[in-house]
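Researcher: Please predict.
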Amino acid sequence: MILKIGDKVAWRHCWGTGPLEEAVIEHITVTDYPREKYGDDREQADWALVHANRVCVSLANGSWAYGSQISPVGTDPNEWHKSIPWELGNV
């Protein structure tokens, strides 16, 4: 699965402790290490990089988020990131 600019995602603000909301991706940065804010700007990123927390995104609502704060629509980021990567299907 690929995350692209314009995609809707499930999002929890407040470092993942906020309520579950939907947000739209405006900007994607892929980082060299987990939980970094700066890296290479991309039009898309594999969800495996999001699961590894190596993606930082800007959202249409004016917020930004680490990969650990977002997940595919219909899932909860807090639960999705606990899954083992091979349980994620094509991710």
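Model: The chain has a mean pLDDT of 92.
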